[in-house]
From TrEMBL:
Taxonomy, superkingdom: Eukaryota
Keyword terms of this UniProt record: Glycoprotein, Membrane, Secreted, Transmembrane, Transmembrane helix
The protein, known as: MGT5A-like N-terminal domain-containing protein
GO cellular component: extracellular region
MGT5A-like N-terminal domain residues: 6-33
Subcellular location: Secreted
Transmembrane segment boundaries: 14-32
Alphabetized Pfam families for the sequence: MGT5A_N (PF15027)
InterPro entries according to UniProt: MGT5A-like_N (IPR027833)
Source organism: Xenopus laevis (African clawed frog)
Length: 33
C-alpha cells in the first residue's frame, strides 16, 4: 500500500471492474431467466 505504481493501480481497478461486471451480469441472469 506504500508504493502506488500505475500498473498495479490499473490492475486493481481492472480486477474490481471485472468482479463488479460479473456480479451485475449474474444478477441480470437470475432476474431475467
Amino acid at each position: 500500500m506504500a508504493s502506488f505504481t500505475p500498473w498495479k493501480l490499473s490492475s486493481q481497478k481492472l480486477g474490481f471492474f471485472l468482479v463488479t461486471f460479473g456480479f451485475i451480469w449474474g444478477m441480470m441472469l437470475l432476474h431475467f431467466t
